[in-house]
User: What shape does this take?
Amino acid sequence: MAKKDSNLFSATASKRQAEQEALKQGLAQDAAAGTEPADDSADEARVKLTLALSAGDKFKLKTAAAKRGITVAKLVHEWISELDVD
Assistant: This one.
């Protein structure tokens, strides 16, 4: 019988924690340098956002993106870029 690892997810969790720390460090360096990540960079790191919407709102959002021939993420990005947050 093969020996079971006491924590099957420890390696993955450690890797994810290291990635998060690297992201935090990069953001801190950008903030210290007074720079912002490029908005239109194809290589820009992506993060996930969980958003709870009604079924109707989700349908409208997906339909609006489909009518424009873009993804929901791109549609949201366009809306965000229009915000005046300075």
About this structure: The chain has three helices and no strands. Helices lie at 10-33, 55-68, 72-82. The mean pLDDT is 79. Residues 60 and 66 are 10 Å apart (CA to CA).
